[in-house]
Amino acid sequence: MEYTTLGNTGTTVSRVCYGTWRFGRETGGVVETDREEAHELLDAARDHGINFIDTANVYGDPDGKSEQWIGEWLEDRDHDREDFVIASKVYFPFDGWGAPGPNDSGLGRKHIRAQIEGTLERLGTDYLDLYYIHRWDEETPIEETMSVLSDLVREGKVNHLGASTMAAWQLTKALWTSDAEGLERFDVTQPMVNAAHYDVVGDYLDVCADQDLAVCPYSPLGGGFLTGKYDQAEDGSVEAPDGSRASLDDLFEDRYATDRAWDVLEAVEAVADEVDATPAQVSLRWLMDQGRFTCIPIVGARSPDQLAENVGAVEVDLSDEQFERIDAARNGDE
């Protein structure tokens, strides 16, 4: 495993982060990853040298199974908490089997205060290494949000702050507010970024590069599109295996399988053949090799074998020409 500094912090993390959004998640009445499978995957992540684990209070909702199972794993396996960098999130309603109340969502002081306590209890820890705001809150002044988050840092409940999906101007406003008010600022971001979906968030990434923020992208393989398991039909649509993301998600083609994305996939597959790697590994390595900012992709492997393939990306070496070829396809260059 390779390790890197988490943006402009003193925390060292693996070049791959393990994402646990599938833990306890139900699709069509079936749990995607149950407790036993979750612990097996966490074991595999540890064995591969991954020390960076990503979760959220609402993963495995309504009772926060993802955080619960990570906490149980830490305790059952008798792990040293200090060996791991754990990130969680706050924003969405968390009802815990009950109907959410008027203050059970968003980024107001009352909701954040309640949710950090629940998150710490489920994880069985006294602190989080990283606490993200899961979304931007239009209803709460950003000054209030950054103030309560700063309090959590000063109280030792949180080490660093992160921002998930939002617009570039929102991220800029939050950073300016922190600087102007003498508050803690975001050190890490978590946008959706992959080789086929990059220029769409170009302004956002410009802010990250300028402010030395780490980027931990979710969906780094485009919902499986960049693994090469999908084919393009004659009418331009996606030919998807039964049970795959594309066969289940009506948004898949609009989000991932654009005309330019097919060109990116073609370039990725060609490079994969040249370096004796899989398209998934090349796609992840392309993210890790971003020069403007520290990029640590979040992988949500469903099996130990899939995780082993993802981790293999750290062994891939892309030449400047190969990196730029994928870039050219992404930019639509001839």
Topology (elements, then pairings):
Blueprint lengths: L2 E3 L6 E3 L2 E3 L6 E2 L2 E2 L3 H13 L4 E3 L10 H12 L8 E6 L18 H15 L4 E6 L8 H13 L3 E6 L4 H14 L4 E4 L12 H9 L3 E2 L15 E2 L5 E2 L5 H4 L3 H4 L3 H17 L3 H10 L9 E2 L4 H8 L8 H12 L3
Parallel strand pairs: 3-6, 3-14, 6-7, 7-8, 8-9, 9-10, 10-11
Antiparallel strand pairs: 1-2, 4-5, 12-13
Helix pairs in contact: 1-2, 2-3, 4-5, 5-6, 9-10, 9-12
Quick structural overview:
With 334 residues, this protein is an alpha/beta fold. Helix content is 39%, strand content 14%.
**CATH superfamily membership of the domain at 3-190:** NADP-dependent oxidoreductase domain
Please state how the strands of the largest beta sheet are arranged side by side: 11-10-9-8-7-6-3-14
The CATH architecture of the domain at 3-190 can be named as Alpha-Beta Barrel
Q: What is the molecular shape? A: globular
Based on secondary structure, the structural category is alpha/beta
Radius of gyration equals 20 Å
Distance between the termini: 36 Å
